[in-house]
Specification:
Largest sheet: 9 strands, mixed
Distance between the termini: 27 Å
Helix content: 25-40%
Number of helices: 12
Number of strands: 18
Structural class: alpha+beta
Length: 429
């Protein structure tokens, strides 16, 4: 990546406006604000429409042109000097979990906007266009799966299938887009991206635990998800001896322990989680005859992830034979690990070094839009700490200092990729 700097431009001292970024985050957080200080702004609801409208309003005030594609992704573009140059892009998402926080997603989108505001403030012209994107339905809590907008954009998820997905009330994605008037027609090609950067809170405890300001994200864990149904025989809890039971719950408990053990056997990157479990018939004095549960496995290495999946399948088979259970193990997700573009990762690392910010290489354990974008364009991520590593929670918290630091790293990484043609001064900070 080359940077073209005019002799009068002191790019090394350029910084974003901390107060302006923080005020934008707090203003966006009012939309869907919850009593405990978080946000409930789920995808394609009227509250999320308001967030989209506010983002577009701010972008248009900075002279950006707006494009919306057919899954509702929003692209705000600041033109560069070269009309044929590919765009340097930043972004994340505006939707939240039902009990979400102020920073998850929004930090990435509004940091991109702050970069544009800073370039405008200082009258800086870049060679490549600068774009900020707000991806549709990253969280996937209302309409599964997660990362829907970036998945359709990158070709990983099929458009028609995603438009037909429904929420718990039977509303389709297609209907919801129409209801909030965000079904776009613009076709935006992934091949038009020179580099994509996504700033995000870490959503884990590593940066805070090590007192590190910037996580240079080198990639993300691969994921295998399964839905598992265990079927035994419900029977009276009193008259049925322990050795004659076909207890689905005991099988489920052993599967959970096996998953945990397998993840520990594949450290440091192995992860294993049972996130959902339902029992039938759900009576205190009836032995459960059926359990439905989810299995979530993650790892950085494809071979290790495959081995974990095979080990879990073998454990389920052995446990069910021993307990006299039938089972159905259905794969629901299979995402390979993501290794981000070296040049983009280097741009993030060099920006942190230039800004004299403590930093470390880190692997994302969570899924992010950058992982889908990274399959079709050069991409990287920037992490900042969040208090106690807590996210997807109303108490999610980040400091203004860390927010500002992450945005400054984004600014310099994007300028590294976009190139500066000229600067004619500005209003200053």
């Amino acid at each position: 990546m080359n940077t073209y700097v005019s002799p009068t431009t002191d790019i090394t001292s350029l910084r974003t406006d901390s107060d302006r970024l923080w005020e934008a985050l707090m203003e966006m957080a009012k939309l869907g604000a919850t009593p405990k200080g978080g946000v409930n702004r789920q995808a394609l609801t009227d509250l999320e429409r308001q967030g989209r409208d506010l983002f577009i309003q701010w972008c248009r005030a900075e002279g950006c042109t707006i494009r919306i594609d057919n899954i509702g992704n929003i692209f705000a573009r600041r033109e560069g000097s070269d009309p044929n140059a590919k765009a340097v892009m930043a972004g994340s998402h505006l939707d939240s979990q039902p009990t979400g926080g102020k920073y998850d997603g929004c930090f990435g989108v509004l940091s991109g906007l702050e970069v544009i505001r800073t370039l405008n403030q200082h009258n800086i012209t870049t060679q490549s266009p600068i774009e900020v994107v707000a991806w549709t339905n990253e969280e996937g809590c209302r309409f599964p799966p997660c990362m829907m907008g970036s998945g359709v954009f990158s070709g990983v998820l099929e458009f028609d299938a995603m438009m037909a997905r429904t929420d718990t009330d039977g509303v389709t994605v297609s209907d919801a887009l129409d209801a909030i008037h965000y079904r776009g027609s613009d076709e935006v090609s992934p091949h038009e991206i020179k580099a994509y950067f996504e700033p995000h809170i870490e959503q884990g405890p590593i940066l805070e635990d090590t007192a590190t300001t910037i996580g240079v994200v080198i990639g993300g864990l691969g994921q295998k998800w399964f839905d598992l149904t265990l079927t035994g025989l419900e029977a009276h809890a009193g008259p049925t001896p322990m050795n004659l039971r076909r207890d689905a719950m005991m099988g489920a408990a052993e599967v959970a322990q096996a998953l945990n053990r397998i993840a520990f056997d594949h450290q440091p990157h192995g992860r294993g989680t049972v996130g959902c479990m339902t029992l039938h018939p759900g009576s205190r004095n009836v032995i459960p005859g059926q359990v439905k549960m989810t299995l979530d496995m993650r790892h950085w290495e494809p071979e290790a992830l495959e081995t974990m999946g095979q080990a879990v399948a073998a454990a389920v088979e052995e446990i069910c034979q021993r307990h006299g259970l039938e089972y159905h193990l259905e794969p629901t997700a299979n995402f390979a690990p993501e290794y981000f573009d070296k040049a983009c990762v280097d741009a993030v690392r060099q920006s942190a070094e230039h800004l004299e910010l403590s930093h470390m290489d880190i692997i994302s354990g969570a899924g992010h839009d950058a992982m889908f974008v990274g399959r079709v364009a050069p991409a990287a991520m920037i992490f900042i700490p969040c208090k106690d590593g807590i996210s997807h929670n109303e108490i999610e918290s980040a400091t203004p200092e860390h927010v500002h630091a992450g945005c400054n790293v984004l600014l310099h990484a994007m300028l590294n990729a976009a190139g500066i043609v000229s600067s004619v001064g500005g209003t200053g900070e």
